[in-house]
């Protein structure tokens, strides 16, 4: 509840022309938006470009934000739409990019051994996620990585809760099958 009130104050001040409030609002959610874009595109440059597009759209449409829902959900709907448009316009096939997940942003620990383990684990997760369709990957991303409820995801995507649950179940079954095959071979 505190964050919701803080968002409302920042939005009000940003709409009033406060650049520092706008910057605070962006900084509050930049990790969330970047990670979502990255896990959908599997490319650091594309994720950064998409993040800029998302924030440009948020800035342009901020006066239209009615405040009848969480700002975070409203912003993530914009992120989902921008990402979907991007993937469609580029004809992106994440299966071809899964092997190219070599970005260094996973290196955050002091120990080289733990860096490598984290990098290898993240690379494996990205490869497995790349086997999912865009719709399935999106629901997994929003549910498990962004921690949204099904109702919030439905508001963001315009997809019925029952359909989201079906997609999540199908995605988890596919991931389970993929992991079992990898562990057997």
From TrEMBL:
InterPro entries per the UniProt record, alphabetical: RNA_pol_sigma-70-like, RNA_pol_sigma-70_dom, RNA_pol_sigma70_r2, RNA_pol_sigma70_r4_t2, RNA_pol_sigma_r2, RNA_pol_sigma_r3/r4-like, WH-like_DNA-bd_sf
Pfam families (UniProt xref): Sigma70_r2, Sigma70_r4_2
Alphabetized UniProt keyword annotations: DNA-binding, Sigma factor, Transcription, Transcription regulation
Answer yes or no on keyword Plastid: no
GO BP annotations of the record are: DNA-templated transcription initiation
In its keyword annotation, does this UniProt entry include DNA-binding? yes
Start and end residues of each RNA polymerase sigma-70 region domain: 25-92
Listed GO molecular functions?
DNA binding; sigma factor activity
Stretches assigned to the RNA polymerase sigma factor 70 region 4 type domain: 124-175
Tell me the protein family, please.
Answer: Belongs to the sigma-70 factor family. ECF subfamily.
User: Which protein is depicted?
Assistant: RNA polymerase sigma factor
**Organism whose genome encodes this protein:** Aliikangiella marina
Taxonomic lineage of the native organism? Bacteria, Pseudomonadati, Pseudomonadota, Gammaproteobacteria, Oceanospirillales
């Amino acid at each position: 509840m505190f964050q919701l009130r803080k968002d409302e104050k920042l939005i009000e001040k940003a709409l009033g022309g406060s650049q520092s409030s706008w910057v605070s609002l962006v900084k509050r959610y930049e990790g969330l938006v970047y990670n979502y874009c990255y896990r959908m595109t599997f490319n650091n440059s594309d994720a950064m470009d998409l993040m800029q597009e998302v924030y440009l759209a948020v800035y342009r449409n901020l006066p239209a934000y009615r405040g009848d829902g969480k700002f975070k959900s409203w912003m993530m709907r914009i992120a989902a739409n921008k990402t979907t448009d991007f993937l469609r316009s580029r004809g992106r096939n994440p299966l071809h990019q899964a092997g190219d997940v070599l970005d260094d942003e996973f290196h955050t620990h002091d120990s080289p051994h733990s860096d490598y383990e984290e990098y290898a684990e993240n690379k494996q997760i990205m490869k497995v996620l790349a086997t999912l369709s865009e719709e399935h990957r999106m629901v997994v991303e929003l549910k498990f990585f962004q921690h949204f409820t099904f109702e919030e995801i439905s508001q963001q995507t315009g997809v019925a809760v029952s359909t989201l649950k079906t997609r999540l179940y199908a995605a988890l079954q596919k991931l389970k099958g993929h992991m079992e095959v990898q562990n057997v071979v």
